[in-house]
Model the fold of this input.
Amino acid sequence: MSTDDPSKGATRRPASDDAPAVLTACAVQKSYQSGDRRIAVLCGADLTVNSGESVSIRGESGSGKSTLLHLLSGLDDVDAGTITWGEAGPTANRRARYLGMVFQSFYLIPELDALQNVLMASRMIASPGARDRARAKDLLARVGLAERMTHLPSQLSGGERQRVAVARALMNGPRLILADEPTGNLDEHTGDAVIELLLGLARETTTALVLVTHNPTHAAKTDRELLLHEGVLRAVRPSSGF
Amino acid sequence: MPWYFYLALKQLFPTGRFSFFTAISVLGVALGVMLLVLSTSVMGGFGHEIRRMIVDTQGDLQVRGVGGKVINDAAALQARLAQIPGVAASTPFAEGVVLLQFEDRPAYPNMQGVDVQQVNGVIPLARYVSIGSLDELDDDSIILSVQMALGLGARVGDTVEVYSPLILERLSSDEILAPRQLRVAGIFEIGHQQLDSSVVIVTLRLMQDLYGLGTTVHGINIKLKPGLDADETAARINQTLRGAGVQARSWMELNQDFLFVLQLEKNMIFFLLTFIIIVSAFSVTSSLLISVVRKTREIGLLGALGGKPRQVAACFCFQGFLIGFAGTIVGLVLGFTALHFRNDMVEAFTKLTSSEQVLTRFYQFRELPGYSETRDIVAIVVCSVVISTVAGLLPAWRAAKLKPVEALRSE
Ligand SMILES: Nc1ncnc2c1ncn2[C@@H]1O[C@H](COP(=O)(O)OP(=O)(O)O)[C@@H](O)[C@H]1O
Ligand SMILES: [Mg+2]
Done:
């Protein structure tokens, strides 16, 4: 899957200057109407993520991190500014191949077992074949669920569910993974394991990762740390150079 | 298989789990389909039985003189008819209304004069004579229909008086009024309300005598070889006998009004019972709507995975279709099973309510008839599947309208 994409092998991380960034957000603005007041959540956020790079975003609760990720994923529309995925803007058609998403609550489909939940990602593109099945099994084995493939989400623990969600996000070999507080519902130990997995797999497959987290330890493990404050993104590490 | 069909299947029939929602929805549709199959088949059975009775009592075709003229040489015409391919047998008849009296009780039956030798080739009359016998019918006797005999209180061996229009005509020219005295030779029962209450049978010769017909007859009843279309053969006979002043018509044509009423009744029942499916479709709609609300976050996820709103809509619409499809199959199975055991069920029911007599008395059938027309079954299947699919439209629309972002945010 990921090896099918020739551009992927060419730009091993960190990105060279001439290759287009996996994700660019330019002067993104978003506000919500709340009663008779407009609340500006994002006022000119800029972000560039290169192939294979991992970026963490921190910010207070309600600062607009989830809003930003929704805009980056193309699921929501910006008020102003632009989002680009590589060469073009986000569309539903591109999303299945280009993007993997992991959420705080895992959003597994309760009627499907672990394997089928992972395969759901490739189903969005085409009926899964033997190769897809093998890949899904392989991914589940990588996240440590080789023995749990036929378990329904209700038969899995929180950490196991999130690992299924991680495998699902990686299934189509995406260029970019957006993770919105993936450890928010997990205990510390399990959370650490999931972050290790996510970072490790992303690094291996040269998938870029945008990780929204409250946990400084998790943030410290990424290539870059950003802070979302008052509607704009600021670099924390490496510092902006002042 | 596209993902939305796969997901629809899995949501209705989850792996390793039994879905009450699916079971009850399917059962609702199945009950409607079952009742439709059962009732249209029983109604169809009544129609079929009645048609069979009409053919049994009137033959497949009837040849009459054009414009009500009598047929002069019945034997010659019968000989010509016998040449026509498809004609199995024929028998002449004469008919007319008479005034019949038994111990001051009058009746105005339609009197049928039949040729005792030939009639059984066309109409299995002997089979319907339940008391007495057709063989005992001579020129001075009569066979009454059962309802008429009951109404008059006449029994086999009694003597009834018959006045024909000819006799009454003589009365007006001051001749002595002498009714024909006829002995009751038998009683017949066909199981057709109208025939059983208004028809009496005499010999053709007696009828010709009573109506002053001489040797002429009113028409000829024809029996066709099995498997032939009555209307087509009637057309062929009319072609062959063109210019002979006679016309052949099928029982279908002759009983058009009656068959129309029967069809109308069947259509009404179909229409009313379709509402059972519609009601169950409403429950499918509300259950699917609840499922859309319950699965809001998963619908958001499908968007995040790259699903489009109309694909999400297709997923829910397809669930309606699947419920309809499964319900129809279960309903057909239940319906035909019930149809198979209908008489046992009726028997049990009548025994329980001790109403065996009533059933046979009122409906004339000792057994509940059943006859399923392919056309009806196809209509039932199409109706229930279409209605169930339409039931999925509203939930589908609601699901498609959900914004993924809001869906993902919902708690
Ligand atoms: N649909 C909405 N309508 C109105 N306000 C919203 C909506 N979605 C988010 N908000 C507001 O936008 C702000 C940012 O929310 P969110 O992006 O979820 O923050 P975070 O993920 O950083 O906690 C919050 O104040 C929230 O109340
Ligand atoms: Mg959030």
Remarks:
- The helical segments of chain A are 6-10, 65-72, 92-98, 114-123, 130-142, 158-170, 188-204, 216-220.
- The longest helix of chain A spans residues 188-204.
- Strands of chain A lie at 23-34, 37-49, 54-58, 80-85, 99-102, 176-180, 208-212, 224-229, 232-237.
